[in-house]
Specification:
This protein is α+β, with helices and mostly antiparallel strands. The protein contains 18 helices and 14 strands.
Amino acid sequence: MIPPTDPGRHGLAVASCPASRRSSSPPVLTSFTAHLPETFDPAVTRPEWAAYACWVVSAVVIRRYVDKDADDNTFVPLDHEYIDRHIPRKVRKPLLEDLKQAGVLECDGVYYFGCPSGKRDRRHVPGPPGKCLCYRLGPAHRGAKIRPHPLTHPELLRKVSMAYQQERAGVTAPVHIALRGWHDRVEVLPAAPHGEHPLLDRLIEGERRFTVCAQGRVHTNCANLPRQYRQYIRLDGRELESLDIVNSQQLLMAVLLKRREEERSRSREAVCDPCSDASKNDYLRDCLDGSVYDRLAALTGRTRDDVKSMFLAVIYGHPADMHTRVGEAVRRLYPGVFDAVVDLNYRLGHGGLPRMMQAMESGVMIRRVAARLLREWPGMPLLTVHDSILAPAEYSDHVLRVIEEEWLDEFGVVPLTKTSTFTSPQEARKKRPKRRGRSAWKKLERTDRGGVGGRCSPSPA
C-alpha cells in the first residue's frame, strides 16, 4: 500500500518527477484505494473508525489475490503488528470484534506462529517470531464483486505513508536496491482496464511494492500480477522477454539431494544412509532433460499437466498427497528421492523444505545472476520474477549465458531454460482446485504424530 503517482487520478505534484527520483523520495499520500466487496457497509462500526474498517477488510481481500492458491474460503494471516502500523493500537481489538460480530470477517481462532528460527515470510508478518490470527470474509460477502473505494482519512494516510517508507528503508542490499530502482520505473499502458482486478488497479494508481522475504525472494507488483494483465506492462517503454528455468523446483531438489549425499560421503555416513541409491542420479538426469513429468504421466495414466500440479505437493511432503497415485509413482520411479523427501520434511518441519529450496533459488537468481547482469549491463532494463529474468529481447543471449554460467558455478549443472514474451497477450491461468486447507496441518500441529511433517510450526502462507 504505497502512495499513488498517477496525476490523472490523484493530482500529485511529484507525478512528473523522473522515475529514478521516485524510489528515493516517495510522494506524499493524498488518497489510498481500498478494495472492498460491494456488500460491505462501513457503518457496522463507529463512524470515526469507518476508514480503518475499510483498510482491514481490504487487507484481507488483497491477500487473497496475492496468494495464487487462495480463494474466498481461505483464511489469511493478519498479524497484529502489521495492523498496528496502519491503525491506532487501541482501535484494533474493538474494531475486529465489530467486524466479526457483523459477519464481515470470520476468524478461525487458531494462532499462526512464525518459524522457530525466526526466519519468517516478511511480506506479511514482519518482525520477530510471534503469532497472529487468520481471517476471511464472512458468508454474506464471499463471492461479492470487489470494488475500489478511495480513502482520505488523514491519520490513516499518514500511517500508510510511514509504513511504506519503513518498508523501503528495510531494503538495504545493493542488488535489491538496484532491482527496486528498475521496478519503480515500470509503466502501465493507458489501455489497461481499471476496476477489473485489484492488483492491476494498484499498479495503475502508482503502487510499486518491493519486498524481500526471509528466503531472499523478491516480491513485487509485477511478480504477483496475473498473466492476462502483463500485456499492459512496459519497462523503460519496452516490452520484456522472460528467461526462466524449466522446472526449477525439481532441479533444485535434485541438486539439494546430491549435495547432501556428497556431504555424507565425505563424513563417511553414506554406508548407513537408507536414502542413498541410484534413483537420485536418475532423478537428476530426468530433471536436466525435462522428462520427470512425462515419466510420471506414463506411469499414472494422468495428463502431464495433472502430474505437474501434484508433483510438488508430494515433494513438499503433504500427508494427503504422499499416497496418491502420483505419490506412489514417485516412490516407484525414484525411491531414494521419496525416502529423502520424507526424511527432510520430518527433520525440517512443515514448510522447511520449500523455504530451503526458495533460498537456493534466490541465491543463484538474485545474488548471482541478477547481480552480475546489473554490474555488467547497468543500463539494461531488468526485473525478476522468482526463477525468471525479465529483460528486452536484444539482451536475451547475454542473460541466457549468465544464467548458464552462474548455475554451473553454483550447482555444477546447466539448467534447461525457456524464453517467452512476458508482456505478450496471454489467457488467464486456470485456477487449480483447492486440494487441502489449513485444517489438515492443524491436526499435525496439535498432536505429536511424527511421520512426515511431525510436530512443527506452520510457515506463513
